[in-house]
Specification:
Blueprint lengths: L1 E8 L9 H15 L6 E6 L2 E6 L14 H8 L4 E10 L3 H18 L5 E8 L8 H15 L4 E2 L6 E7 L3 E5 L2 E2 L11 E5 L5 H10 L5 E7 L6 H18 L3 E6 L1 H10 L5 H19 L2 E5 L12 H8 L6 E2 L7 H10 L3 H4 L21 H8 L4 H10 L1 E5 L1
Parallel strand pairs: 5-6, 5-7, 10-11, 10-13, 11-12, 13-14
Antiparallel strand pairs: 1-3, 1-4, 2-3, 4-8, 4-9, 7-8, 12-15
The chain binds adenosine-5'-triphosphate and magnesium ion (MG).
Amino acid sequence: MSNVILARMGEVTLKGLNRGKFEAQLKSNLKWRLRNFGKLSIFQSQSRIWIEAKDENNPNFADAEAAKDILHAVTQVFGIVSVSFAVKFEGDFDRVRAESVEYVRTFLNEHPDYKTFKVEARRGNKNYPLDSQEICAEVGGDIIEAFPQLSAKMKDPDFVLMVEIREFNYVYSGKIMAHRGLPVGSAGRGMLLLSGGIDSPVAGYMMASRGMPLDCVYFHSHPYTSEQAKEKVIELARIVSGFSGSIRLHIVNFTQIQLDMLKNSPQDMITITMRRVMLMIAEQLALQNGCQCLITGESLGQVASQTLEAINATNEVVKMPILRPLIGMDKQDTCDISRKIGAFETSILPYEDCCTIFVAKHPKTHPSAKDVEEAEKNLDIQGMVEMGLKDVETITI
Ligand code: ATP
Ligand code: MG
């Protein structure tokens, strides 16, 4: 008898000829994500992946409580829909009955208030001497006999005991929902413009959930933005990397560029000009690092720089597509995702990502082409881009 993790695949199983590639990517991502949990064997059959410890004394598989961390790690791997922690054993139906009762005994220790249950059964081999209904009836009967406080209930029971009879037998109860999506690495790489706010980490998480590995770029204006602001962005990148896998974070020294803008362009256009230069630098970094797109956390109408006119004015400086997964999202929904991925508490830490001296009180919300041209006529934009690219610190997370 041993404990195993059962992970269910989602969208991957809808793939046609390519399915093998997606599955291989998913297994390799699981292997990487679980690299600190001891030697494991990761085996896939149909729409499921079974994860087992090679060493029978692996503490991460000792019991459901001890397995919490590894189960959580599995849920963070995109491509997995849900996970369960199961007991695996060999043997005939008498063994299945006995192990089911033992499982419930342990389970009730953790949930002493549970009173109702139902059994669900699956057979891999349709020639098994009992069909699913008979398995449920027999096992259910044994459970009621062993635990007189329990009664069977088909609708909304306190717990469902799953019995699966395949090459091996499995019993388990409950499942933890995972983050779904497609395995990271199944799509091309993207360059995320990561600020210290709520939106951009969510945007990165969303694109990674479609299989996209990430690089990140952060524009830092030290000393106008504090060292803590930078630490906060590094921490956010670390949180996103829990889902996306390893991230290269490029920190661009933006101070001199912003000071030049402050001196030589109209206040109400600074945000637009600044964002144009950011995108130009980001595009070059993207090309240098094998990225095929840029990603931002913009959402239509959220702030002055996110009107359609402002978006158009910034969009036009780059050739690469800019993906904006939050463009049609309500802020509340973005905050919900931010909480779900564990970024929210970090994102709301009060370190400004752009010092107030750089932000106009009344930025232009509907800039025209003429406004943009006017704003940049005294600026050496190309020189600024080059200056930015010369002063980049890259951290691998
Ligand atoms: P966020 O919550 O992600 O900071 P926001 O609502 O504050 O977004 P803006 O400040 O207008 O909106 O920024 C829009 C997008 O531009 C951000 O989501 C991010 O992708 C990018 N961005 C803004 N500031 C920076 C920065 N200092 N470094 C890198 N990217 C940035
Ligand atoms: Mg911001």
